[in-house]
């Protein structure tokens, strides 16, 4: 089967079609930015976009996303390497501690700002509560989302 | 000044190896050590190493012989002719930020331009770097002085090279952001231009090099974003789990549901027939793996499945059937332990840990006696990156390890011992850990990976599942405190704690299950008695962020609040009064280290009082709040950090808890990286609340009952309070901040719940007392 990831089509050969998208990304394609945390859809460290919507890749058999556009943390910066405003805000606000959950957090934050360019704290709670951060960086995640929203408003576009 | 450090003076809740490393490090003050130039840098330039005595010289000479081909990065400082400054971060980073903080210390004294600094993770070498580990909040205190001198010496050599080139006295030169400046003539020479010449100069005597005054710091204390943040936000490989090696196979290792049971047989033929599976085999129990020991080469009995991908291995694991022999397995149950603790609390204690003054007389003359029985559960580390390790046992007898471990040197020792090879044949690459919290002090996954790689003769990544991670932890032990206190004239006159804890063999508490007889307020109150009884257990225990303190602070600081309430006193005033007490026959403080060396100085009541007052002030202590809303406060000293925290909490009619805000006041001396320190304090408070609110691992018949996050509800963003952090930057030596901000969080919140509701929380997690969170 074939899989479209970050705008490129990959031939997965005769891969077990029940393999979770998470492990295809990590082991087959070497895109290890998407993380394994729980395997049961509780922590959302494995969040990617499928057709623009944030989903937990540990819960999706790869066959279920055939023909769809998968975007991972490796694919959200601009072609020229310019970071997405959410990525830049994560650096500027020094959000990460261990950093393990942050790729998933960023994917949900990017999706949130596409739907809701000026999110309230309640919007952030709703969009981001699927994610666990064991280090407890929630204050900074909230701040960075507001900063990125301001940046997108100022420049008129994301990345 | 000579310094005599007894390892017992270092935090009594730390594992022995950390206390000894700290004591050894303080015993060899920097002035008696040598900096060396390290040979072997391609293209010239200045490379400085630092190490202890003769071992270094031997190593340097050894390297010199084959120094020309590839650069062996064995130093703190490397300055390349193109001006690039490479600084080596010696200790593992598991989220505590030392990969940024430690090089900042070097850069400050070097006067490097931080934007032009590249940070690399150092290789493992006791000779060149001394102890390398992430634990005990000790990276900063153990390395601050050494790293300053590493930077200052490099700077002095660059200045000397510039003086020679410009034909002026070194005293006419200054440095600024990567340049040596001759102010009189306006000439500037970049560090890169000077690197090769500097490398030819002798290394000056450490003692002759002045260090900056704190007021002249340009970088330390500023907000600096983490050096790995670009990698984090773009998803580049950096964690243990991200490691890939050509030809690498993927393994799971299945251990018994009951801790310590042994695998007798398994349906290996069936498992080996499954798609992608390369091999499956039993590993025998080795050593005593349920005992926490970072250098242990022990392995729990289990079944390895080796496959061509993680998914093939995980899928095969579902079909694995194992017959377990539970003869030697744990039969422990949490409910059984609770019943046993209550029984023991009613009896005479088994041991007296410490006694001062005349406790019985104080109780006899008390106007009020306060009693309380406190309980806290076992908890798991729950690092978000499940345990994993990649090992390649090569045909030539050498071994390569890629590990997200907090104790890389111990990992090398463990693997060398397991395989019977010299440690020099084992190379370990330090990878970032997706959370540590003490879990990655143990190297059990490293040893498993080494055993499996050895067996199959190929590089292998052993990947634990989340369920494995919960089932095979070195848990924060639960515990019980049966307190009794005497109040006379509104003052605390006696303090008694009957501590009930767990033991393996019966003589000593299990790892991280001990209580110091000097635990506050026993070290302040004129009459105190600390006694102990123990329950036998086979559950593995180990250090969990702020070991000991993380639970003891809850019990002690909540019971002290009970005492304040019983005495009819304001809590802050009461705490400050206890802090000011002078216990009779107080042992003289045994400070560590001489000038320049790091110190483990113990509780400083003035610093303690200052943070208590600051937290109270910032929280608006004493202001009136609506019904159902309250302010609570707590203080705890650990890891040489003084922290007070105040929490504003509301509780609704259905016992739903909201923590609105927490104010943190901390004194850890001067701050290295303000951004990192604040992040650690905020995260510690959220970790402390998360754990107090709803986390516990219970056991039935030796089996952990919680196996994934659905049963272990870590706090989420919508539930997290705003955390406001204030530091008092005293002139004391800087100390670590990965741990000491955690312990006061839970008692501050529980005391606020009392203020809001009148309900005294004596059992954690809060869900056990009927509280919930939306």
Radius of gyration of chain B: 27 Å
Going by CATH, the homologous superfamily of the largest domain in chain A would be Beta-grasp domain
| Helix share bin of chain B | 25-40%
Query: Which term fits the overall shape of chain A?
Result: globular
Tally of individual helices of chain B: 19
Question: Biggest sheet of chain B: strands side by side, in what order?
Answer: 11-12-9-19-16-17-18
Q: What is the succession of H and E elements of chain A?
A: EEHEEEHHHH
Q: What is the assigned CATH homologous superfamily of the largest domain in chain B?
A: Aldehyde oxidase/xanthine dehydrogenase, molybdopterin binding domain
Name given to the CATH architecture of the largest domain in chain A: Roll
Decide which structural class fits the backbone of chain B.
alpha+beta
Biggest sheet character of chain B: 7 strands, mixed
Give the uncertain stretches of chain B in residue-range form.
50-74, 588-598
Strand content of chain B: 15-25%
Main pleated sheet of chain A:
5 strands, mixed
CATH-assigned fold name of the largest domain in chain B: Aldehyde Oxidoreductase, domain 4
Structural class of chain A: alpha+beta
Labels describing this entry:
heterodimer, A: 159 residues, alpha+beta, Ubiquitin-like (UB roll), DNA polymerase, domain 1, 2 domains, five-stranded mixed sheet, 5 helices, 5 strands, 35% helix, 12% strand, B: 774 residues, Aldehyde Oxidoreductase, domain 4, 3 domains, seven-stranded mixed sheet, 19 helices, 28 strands, 29% helix, 22% strand, globular
Account of the 3D structure:
The complex is a heterodimer of chains A (159) and B (774). Chain A has helices spanning 21-28, 85-92, 102-115, 121-128, 138-155; strands spanning 2-5, 8-11, 47-50, 53-56, 69-71. Chain A is of the alpha+beta class. Chain A folds into two domains: 2-75, Ubiquitin-like (UB roll) (Roll), CATH 3.10.20; 85-155, Orthogonal Bundle (DNA polymerase, domain 1), CATH 1.10.150.120. A five-stranded mixed sheet of chain A has the order 2-1-5-3-4, with helices on one face. In chain A, α2 (85-92) crosses α5 (138-155) and α3 crosses α4. The N and C termini of chain A lie far apart (31 Å). The mean pLDDT of chain A is 97. Chain B has 774 residues and is of the alpha+beta class. Chain B has three domains: 7-234, Aldehyde oxidase/xanthine dehydrogenase, molybdopterin binding domain (Aldehyde Oxidoreductase, domain 4), CATH 3.30.365; 237-544, Aldehyde oxidase/xanthine dehydrogenase, molybdopterin binding domain (Aldehyde Oxidoreductase, domain 4); 548-573 and 605-774, 2-Layer Sandwich (Aldehyde Oxidoreductase, domain 4). Chain B is built from 19 helices and 28 strands. A seven-stranded mixed sheet of chain B has the order 11-12-9-19-16-17-18, sandwiched between helices. A five-stranded mixed sheet of chain B has the order 1-2-3-4-5. In chain B, β1 (34-37) and β2 form a beta hairpin. Chain B is globular. The chains are: A alpha+beta (159), B alpha+beta (774).
């Amino acid at each position: 089967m074939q899989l479209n990831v970050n705008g490129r089509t990959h031939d997965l050969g005769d891969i077990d079609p029940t393999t979770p998208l998470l492990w295809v990304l990590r082991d087959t394609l070497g895109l290890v930015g998407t993380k394994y945390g729980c395997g049961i859809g509780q922590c959302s460290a494995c969040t990617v976009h499928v057709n623009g919507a944030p989903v937990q890749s540990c819960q999706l058999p790869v066959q279920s996303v055939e023909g769809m556009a998968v975007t991972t943390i490796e694919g959200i910066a601009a072609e020229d390497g310019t970071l997405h405003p959410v990525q830049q805000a994560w650096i500027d606000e020094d959000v990460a501690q261990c950093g393990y959950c942050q790729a998933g957090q960023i994917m949900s934050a990017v999706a949130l700002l596409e739907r809701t360019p000026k999110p309230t704290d309640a919007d952030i709670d709703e969009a981001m509560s699927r994610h666990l951060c064991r280090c407890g960086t929630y204050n900074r995640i909230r701040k960075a989302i507001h900063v990125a929203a301001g940046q997108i408003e100022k420049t008129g576009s994301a990345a | 000044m000579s310094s005599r450090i007894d390892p017992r003076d270092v935090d009594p809740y730390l594992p022995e190896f950390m206390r000894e490393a700290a004591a050894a490090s303080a015993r060899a003050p920097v002035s008696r050590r040598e900096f060396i130039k390290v040979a072997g840098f391609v293209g010239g330039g200045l490379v400085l190493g630092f190490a202890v005595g003769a071992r270094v010289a031997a190593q340097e000479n050894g390297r010199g012989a084959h120094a020309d081909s590839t650069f062996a990065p064995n130093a703190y400082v490397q300055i390349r002719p193109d001006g690039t400054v490479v600084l080596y971060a010696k200790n593992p980073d598991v989220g505590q930020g030392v990969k940024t903080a430690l090089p900042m210390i070097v850069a400050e004294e070097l006067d490097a331009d931080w934007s032009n600094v590249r940070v690399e993770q150092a290789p493992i070498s006791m000779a060149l770097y001394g102890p390398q580990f992430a634990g005990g909040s000790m990276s900063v205190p153990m390395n601050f002085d050494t790293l300053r001198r590493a930077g200052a010496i490099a700077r002095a050599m660059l200045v000397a090279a510039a003086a020679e080139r410009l034909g002026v006295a070194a005293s006419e030169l200054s440095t600024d952001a990567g340049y040596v400046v001759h102010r009189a003539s306006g000439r500037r020479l970049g560090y890169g231009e000077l690197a090769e010449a500097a490398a030819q100069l002798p290394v000056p005597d450490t003692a002759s090099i002045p260090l900056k005054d704190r007021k002249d710091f340009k970088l330390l204390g500023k907000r600096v974003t983490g050096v790995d943040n670009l990698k984090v936000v773009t998803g580049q490989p950096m964690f243990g789990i991200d490691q890939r090696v050509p030809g690498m196979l993927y393994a799971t290792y299945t251990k018994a549901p009951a801790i310590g049971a042994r695998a007798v047989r398994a349906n290996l033929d069936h498992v080996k027939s499954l798609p992608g599976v390369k091999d499956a085999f039993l590993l025998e129990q080795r050593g005593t793996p349920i005992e926490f020991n970072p250098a242990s080469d022990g392995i729990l009995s289990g079944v390895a499945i080796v496959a061509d991908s993680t998914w093939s291995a995980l899928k095969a694991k579902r079909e694995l059937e194992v017959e377990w022999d539970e003869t030697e397995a744990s039969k422990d149950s949490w409910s059984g332990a609770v019943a046993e603790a209550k029984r023991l609390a009613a009896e005479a204690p088994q041991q007296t840990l410490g006694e001062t003054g005349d406790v019985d007389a104080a109780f006899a003359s008390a106007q009020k006696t306060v009693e309380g029985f406190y309980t806290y559960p076992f908890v798991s580390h729950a690092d978000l990156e499940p345990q994993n390790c990649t090992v390649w046992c090569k045909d030539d007898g050498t071994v390569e390890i890629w590990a997200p471990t907090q104790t890389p040197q111990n990992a090398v020792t463990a693997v060398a011992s397991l395989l019977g090879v010299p440690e020099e044949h084992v190379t370990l690459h330090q990878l970032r850990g997706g959370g540590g919290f003490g879990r990655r002090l143990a190297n059990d996954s490293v040893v498993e990976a080494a055993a499996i790689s050895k067996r199959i003769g190929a590089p292998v990544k052993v990947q634990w599942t989340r369920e494995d991670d919960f089932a095979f932890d070195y848990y924060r032990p639960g515990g019980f405190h049966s307190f009794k206190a005497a109040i006379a004239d509104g003052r605390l006159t006696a303090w008694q704690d009957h501590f009930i804890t767990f033991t393996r063999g019966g003589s000593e508490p299990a790892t991280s299950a001990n209580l110091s007889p000097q635990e506050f307020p026993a070290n302040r109150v004129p009459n105190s008695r600390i006694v102990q009884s123990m329950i036998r257990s086979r559950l593995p225990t180990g250090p969990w962020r702020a070991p000991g303190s993380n639970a003891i602070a809850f019990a002690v600081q909540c019971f002290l609040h009970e005492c304040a309430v019983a005495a009819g006193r304001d809590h802050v005033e009461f705490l400050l009064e206890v802090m000011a007490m002078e216990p009779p026959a107080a042992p003289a403080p045994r400070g560590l280290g001489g000038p320049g060396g790091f110190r483990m100085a113990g509780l400083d009541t003035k610093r303690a009082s200052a943070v208590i007052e600051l937290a109270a002030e910032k929280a608006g202590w004493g202001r009136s709040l609506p019904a159902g809303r309250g302010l609570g406060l707590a203080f705890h000293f650990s890891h040489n950090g003084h922290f007070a925290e105040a929490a504003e909490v509301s509780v609704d009619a259905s016992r739903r808890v909201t923590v609105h805000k927490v104010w943190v006041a901390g004194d850890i001396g001067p701050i290295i990286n303000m951004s990192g320190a604040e992040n650690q304090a905020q995260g510690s408070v959220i970790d402390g609340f998360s754990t107090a609110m709803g986390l516990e691992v219970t056991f039935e018949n030796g089996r952990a009952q919680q196996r994934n996050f659905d049963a272990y509800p870590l706090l989420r963003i919508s539930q997290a309070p705003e955390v406001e952090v204030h530091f008092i930057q005293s002139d004391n030596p800087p100390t670590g901040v990965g741990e000491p901000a955690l312990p006061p969080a839970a008692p501050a919140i529980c005391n606020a719940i009392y203020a809001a509701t009148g309900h005294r929380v004596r059992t954690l997690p809060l869900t056990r007392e009927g509280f919930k969170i939306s």
